[in-house]
Each structure stands twice: as structure tokens, then as C-alpha cells.
Design brief:
Helices cover 26% and strands 22% of the residues. The chain is α+β, with helices and mostly antiparallel strands.
């Protein structure tokens, strides 16, 4: 079954009197269990397309379907039940977190907000998933700016864990080419399979 589908999707930006056609008539269809790679040079609209699919941006034209439901005209309130099912990992991992709060504080709040588990179980749940992703829970006590001391790979795994907390049906990656291979999954604890 199609999990993600777009029809004639368009998003234009207007800068200094010029029209930038970031997404121009895109049709895609992604079935459950498929890995779909969209490859293009910087600025070609890949991340914009991802944001449109997740309704983080509103399209100028076209339609967006998720799990068979036309979500094109959904409001923020109508999208809320879908947010847990569709997650995106953005290209710049260091802008995902608010710099003035510790990483753990932000993750715990998101998990509580979406009521993934009981409030009393949130911390244990987060720590368990981080261990499955081979991340040390000490990172939860750090501020986001300290992520720059790590290589990009563990930072990417942290963002992956943030997405997997919700058992999403669809996970969109906006990644540099050297991280675009999903072979990193082989490095994970075998218990990761329960999230697949």
C-alpha cells in the first residue's frame, strides 16, 4: 500500500522579484517497506519536498496523500495524529535542538507531549532506545552546542532516535551523501528490529 504519494506538487518562493521553483510538479509514490532515494545537487528542492510531505510547508498546488488519506488541506490540529507517524531528519543536525535547553529535557518533553508512554516511564523509554542505537545516555545531559564535539555520525544517530520514539510509518532523511546509505543500521543492536 502507498504510504506517501504526491500529485503535481508545487512550491515556489519569490525573492527580489524572481520566482524560485523549489518544487515544480512532483509526482512520487512510496509503498510501505520501500526505501526511496531522491538525489540532487544542493538547492534542488529535496528538503523542501520533504517539508511539504510533512506539511511543515504549505504547497502552492498539488496534493499530498499519507497512508491513503489526502492531507493537503489539513490544519495543524488535523495533522496532530499524523505527526507521530511521519518523521524527518534534517540535513543540519545542530539546528534541530533549542540551544538553551539540555538535549534530554527537550526529548523528554516531546515524548510526553505525544503520550508515547506513561509520564513515569519516559526517561527509561528514552534511555532504552538510545542504548539500542548504540548511544550513551550521558549525551542527554549535554547542551546541543556540545554536539559539535562529536562526529556527525553519533549526532545523526541521536536524531534518528528522536524520530524512532514514535514508531513512525514513514521516516524522511535529508542527508549529506556520505550518510545517505542505510548500512548504518547494521551497526545497531539487534533489538532495533522491533522498530523496523
Amino acid at each position: 500500500m502507498e504510504k506517501v504519494k504526491t500529485k503535481n506538487l508545487k512550491k515556489y518562493f519569490y525573492v527580489w522579484g524572481k520566482v524560485i521553483k523549489a518544487v515544480d510538479g512532483v509526482d512520487i509514490s512510496i509503498n510501505g517497506g520501500e526505501i526511496y532515494a531522491l538525489i540532487g545537487e544542493s538547492g534542488s528542492g529535496k528538503s523542501t519536498l520533504g517539508k511539504l510531505i510533512l506539511k511543515l510547508l504549505e504547497p502552492d498546488e498539488g496534493e499530498i496523500f499519507f497512508d491513503g488519506v489526502n492531507i493537503t488541506n489539513f490544519t495543524k490540529e488535523m495533522m496532530r495524529p499524523f505527526r507521530r507517524k511521519m518523521q524527518m531528519i534534517f540535513q543540519d543536525p545542530y539546528t534541530t535542538f533549542n540551544p538553551i535547553y539540555k538535549i534530554g529535557t527537550q526529548i523528554f518533553e516531546v515524548v510526553k507531549f505525544h503520550k508515547v508512554v506513561e509520564s513515569s516511564m519516559v526517561e527509561d523509554y528514552v534511555v532504552q532506545l538510545m542504548r539500542i542505537l548504540t548511544l550513551h545516555p550521558d549525551i542527554l545531559r549535554k547542551y546541543p552546542f556540545l554536539l559539535s564535539l562529536y562526529s556527525l555520525f553519533p549526532t545523526f544517530l541521536l536524531l534518528l532516535s528522536l524520530s524512532l520514539f514514535f514508531y513512525p510509518l514513514t521516516l524522511l532523511f535529508s542527508l549529506p551523501l556520505h550518510l545517505s546509505s542505510l548500512s548504518f543500521l547494521s551497526l545497531l543492536d539487534p533489538s532495533f528490529e522491533k522498530f523496523s
